[in-house]
Design a protein that fits this description.
heterodimer, A: alpha+beta, Alpha-Beta Plaits, 2 domains, two-stranded antiparallel ribbon, 6 helices, 9 strands, about 25% helix, globular, B: alpha+beta, Aldehyde Ferredoxin Oxidoreductase,  A, domain 1, Aldehyde Ferredoxin Oxidoreductase Protein, subunit A, domain 2, Aldehyde Ferredoxin Oxidoreductase Protein, subunit A, domain 3, 3 domains, six-stranded mixed β-sheet, about 40% helix
């Protein structure tokens, strides 16, 4: 029923478009530090790895569980976990508890920021020129990953 | 309140360790940013009395108003200095992530003067600026230096520009290197950094770039992002970078072979094959949907990223058919911080001289400079980086090296104003030749009439009959529009070429100021033309910018750069091409029998000077032209020097 963001990190080129449009869309300024998605790059001895990281919209969410004022709740339309900024204390408990670094306190506004799927039509998905970030119905993700898993085999067999 | 631009220039004086922050105004009244403002700073601060390695030489890193925004291609910045390779204005465009980070830190421009008394690197984090001890990184290659600095600063997100060992030894064609393969490569800016004992600049920024009308700006960014991805070129370039285009170049006899002795080379897609077989990932610059770079990891050969022009330099120019080995050579050049085009131009000069028996292996320290001998070339690169033996002679650049070697070397040294030519056909593509002859820095990267190249490629891009007809019709119409003559479509014809060069230069001088990578402009048949730039700037600034504003600023920049170089002593005599292109008929292939015509070439120079408002005899911008662009102080300055017999105006 809900759609989830799925990252294909083998396709990401590290262009940081996702970060820039996220922050511009949310805050009216271009500032990757305030974006809900972040491109994590590692360069070593001429090799490069670039992986976008964002909130996984967990089914059982630590951030929601540890919030002392219940500021994080599931949006019924999108399935995203959303921060109620009126209540949020900026206490950082959610930040500490998330295993992915998917939520953190915005230094300018003092409240937690995380991906909210742009209300159901994520901008990063539309702007990613490599389709490394996709928005997929949750039930369909499993077979897509399995099909991708055998891609190399198909190429070998020249299918 | 600043929008798009962040409103500050950071000045760093390395001699006295003085750091100051000045407002961007009034520099941004004449130019939008980038190369425009950099050139104005250079004109004001670095006159003919200052030599390239003097502490008073300036290095200006300049972003544009669009740098760091989501309009595609916004990673570019300009780096300018007085070039030790040419002794005139040197400048290079650099992509990647350094420019955006500099703006996130709160600076549009970074201007470095003076000389540190020991190796240092500059660290900028928002308002905090520190000149740090560079002892741990001095001597390290360009990739290792960045890894050490990231560790030392304990910040994996910091963006770094660095020089390699070659620049530390003041090799006049050494690069400024950033990330894996972004560089401010040509005109030896790296050597100027080396002369200042400045190993690197590391920047981290966490502030934002404010946009006046965010929704409209986002909308145009989205539209352009979408439009780019619908173009037929996008699929090819985003999968194969420019490697397929290079295959087309060789089909069309556009790539020089063996130091431009001929133009017939391997066909059947060897360059794109390298990319398909060995590249493990696509990579690109900030906010770019084309990601034109290939990532290679070939054991025992090379690990790293490369793209674009070097594929021609490390193959046909030096007679090398082994593209994989050539990639490995490029990785050495990158790590040493040696600029590939000059390095290969010097290499192919030696190779041809050896071929003709003018030099022997003794003259090259026992290294056999045989065509295609990559091992020899790699050895030569290390000699250059260490300034050893023949390397020490070559490290001073093409003009001094040819003079020192003698034995007719000048004939095989293909350069204009001291900057060696790109390995691209400027012999029978006369528009490219003109673009090179008048080019501000010596090569035609910003003045190449790319439409002429495209026209020459029609029929050589693997099209079927229908596709070829369509391409032909498209370029015939486009070129006739720009050149005023259908002859502009023919590489060997001179008619209309001056207009085509001016058209290209106008567009490049625009995107060099506003900060859009020229791959995404009509230069490569992509949508971000001057109209789109004006619209984006209007939404970004919250103040109207019209196409005419950008075009005027663009032509103003062309005029100011010319004035700078004329102040240094450049005249019409220096707007020239190698003797080979006029003397030798091309021996084979599509353009067999063609050689350039001196009288016709001079006439295109007349035409170009007339278009620009430069004196026909000297090539100096006239007072009328300078004043038209609001550069009266420059006109006064040039007149004063003429009165003192330092230059001639007419």
């Amino acid at each position: 029923m809900y759609s989830k963001i799925v990252i294909d990190y083998t396709k990401c080129t590290g262009c940081r478009t996702c970060e820039t449009v996220c922050s511009l869309n949310k805050w009216g300024e271009c500032n990757p530090e305030r974006a809900a998605i972040r491109n994590i790059r590692t360069e070593k001895s001429g090799l490069i790895s670039t992986i976008p990281v964002l909130c996984q919209q967990c089914e059982t969410a630590f951030c929601q569980a540890v919030c002392p004022v219940n500021a994080i709740s599931r949006n019924e339309k999108t399935g995203a976990l959303v921060v109620n900024e009126e209540i949020c204390l900026g206490c950082r408990r959610c930040e500490y508890s998330c295993p992915f670094g998917g939520v953190s306190v915005d230094v300018v506004r003092g409240v937690s920021v995380k991906c909210d799927l742009c209300g159901g039509d994520p901008l990063c998905v539309k702007m990613c020129s490599k389709d490394a970030i996709k928005f997929v119905e949750a039930e369909k993700i499993s077979v897509i990953l399995k099909r991708k898993g055998i891609e190399k085999y198909l190429t070998l067999q020249q299918i | 309140m600043w929008f798009l631009s962040v409103g500050k220039i950071l000045f760093v004086d390395l001699t006295n360790g003085i750091i100051s922050k000045e407002p961007l105004a009034p520099y941004n009244e004449l130019f939008f940013g980038g190369k425009g403002i950099n050139t104005k700073i250079m004109y004001d601060k670095v006159g003919p009395e200052v030599k390239p390695f003097d502490p008073d030489n300036v290095i200006a890193f300049g972003t544009g108003p669009l740098t760091g925004t989501p309009l595609p291609g916004s990673g570019k910045m300009d780096v300018s200095t007085k070039s030790p390779e040419t002794n005139i204005l040197g400048s290079a465009a650099m992509g990647g992530f350094f420019g955006p980070e500099l703006k996130f830190a709160g600076y549009d421009h970074l201007v470095i003067t003076g000389k540190a008394n020991k190796p240092v690197y500059l660290y900028i984090e928002n308002d905090y600026v520190e000149i740090r001890d560079g002892i741990n990184v001095w001597g390290k290659d360009t990739l290792t230096a960045q890894e050490i600095i990231r560790d030392e600063l304990n910040d994996p997100e910091v963006q770094i520009v660095t020089i390699g060992p070659a620049a530390e030894k003041l090799v006049v064609f050494s690069t400024v290197h950033h990330a894996l393969s972004n560089t401010a490569s040509r005109t030896g800016i790296g050597a100027v950094m080396g002369s200042k004992n400045l190993k690197a600049v590391a920047v981290r920024g966490t502030k934002g770039i404010k946009i006046a009308e965010p929704e409209k700006f986002l909308a145009i960014s989205q539209k352009i992002n979408y439009d780019i991805r619908q173009t037929p070129q996008h699929k090819e370039w985003s999968e194969l970078g420019v490697t397929k285009l290079i295959d087309y170049y060789y089909n069309a006899d556009y790539g020089p072979v063996n130091n431009a002795q001929s133009y017939v080379w391997d066909k059947n897609w060897p360059c794109s094959t390298l990319c398909i077989k060995y590249s493990y990932q696509r990579y690109g610059c900030f906010n770019c949907p084309i990601h034109c770079m290939e990532c290679y990891n070939v054991e025992g050969v090379g690990v790293g990223v490369m793209s674009c022009q070097p594929y021609l330099e490390i193959t046909s120019r030096i007679g090398n058919h082994d593209y994989k080995a050539g990639m490995g050579l490029m990785m050495h050049c990158q790590r040493l911080g040696i600029e590939n085009i000059t390095a290969m131009a010097l290499t192919s000069m030696l190779m041809e001289m050896r071929q003709r028996g003018l030099i022997t292996d003794k003259d090259t320290d026992g290294i056999p400079m045989e065509w295609g001998n990559i091992d020899s070339v790699i050895k030569l690169m290390y000699k250059i980086a260490n300034r050893e033996g023949i390397g020490n002679i070559l490290a001073d650049g093409m003009v001094p090296a040819a003079k020192a070697i003698g034995r007719g070397a000048e004939y095989y040294a293909h350069h204009t104003k001291g900057l060696p030519h790109y390995a691209l056909n400027q012999h029978s593509f006369v528009g490219q030749g003109l673009g090179t002859a008048i080019a501000p820095r010596g090569d035609y990267v910003r003045t190449s009439p790319d439409l002429e190249c495209c026209s020459g490629l029609v029929g050589h891009m693997g099209e079927d009959e229908q596709g070829e007809k369509e391409n032909r019709a498209y370029y015939d119409e486009k070129i006739t529009q720009v050149a005023g003559s259908i002859k502009g479509t023919i590489p060997t014809e001179y008619e209309g070429k001056a207009k085509m060069v001016a058209y290209a230069a106008d567009h490049n001088n625009a995107c060099d100021q506003t900060s859009v990578c020229k791959w995404l402009t009509p230069f490569f048949d992509m949508p971000i033309d001057i109209n789109i730039q004006a619209e984006a700037l209007t939404y970004g600034f919250g103040k109207e910018v019209i196409t005419e504003d950008i075009l005027t600023a663009s032509r103003r920049l062309e005029t100011l750069v010319r004035a700078y170089n004329c102040r240094e002593g450049i005249t019409r005599r220096d707007d020239n091409l190698p003797e080979r292109y006029f003397k030798e008929e091309i021996p084979s292939g599509i353009y067999k029998g063609f050689k350039q015509d001196r009288a016709k070439f001079e006439q295109t120079l007349d035409e170009y000077y007339t278009l620009r408002g430069w004196d026909l005899k000297t090539g100096v911008p006239t007072r009328e032209t300078l004043e038209k662009f609001g550069l009266q102080d420059v006109a006064d300055d040039l007149e004063k020097r003429a009165r003192n017999h330092l230059i001639r105006l007419t």
